[in-house]
Design a protein that fits this description.
This is GGDEF domain-containing protein. The protein contains six helices and four strands, in the order H-H-E-H-H-E-E-H-E-H. The protein is an alpha+beta fold. The longest helix has 21 residues. The protein has a single domain, classed as Alpha-Beta Plaits (2-Layer Sandwich).
Amino acid sequence: MERFYEQVQEKANIDIYARMAYMDTMTGLGNRTAFLEENKSNAIFPGMISYIMMEANNLKTINDTLGHNKGDELIITIAKCMRKAVGHNGQCYRIGGDEFVIILKNKTAAETEEIINKVRCENEFADKQSDITISVAIGYVWTDTEQKNLEDLM
């Protein structure tokens, strides 16, 4: 019985480590590795695809003047705003220190812009609730071409 328990625990640990390999532990978003893996399949995805790129504004200033805990708060808040705005419509990633990506599939350019507006609204709401400035730069690309060169899109 003890050996069975050890095997169950070992399997649980393996599952946790496997998830952690693709997750940004600070935000709970997909990490750069997960993003790159997703891109492999997106290159041959037959439908519409959008990439919304985001970068936190003033992270260095916040870190330098208020401390890294406040910088972490900025990153975590942006991630929460992304998840809330996107819901089940797409996938959210933190691909660098202050860089984020949202991938939407089978959404029109207009639907992509609606989600961007939701992200902006969530960030504006969070900014009003916070003692630090919650602000992001946002850009996006949308395509419905059959063959997608993701490097060119990015």
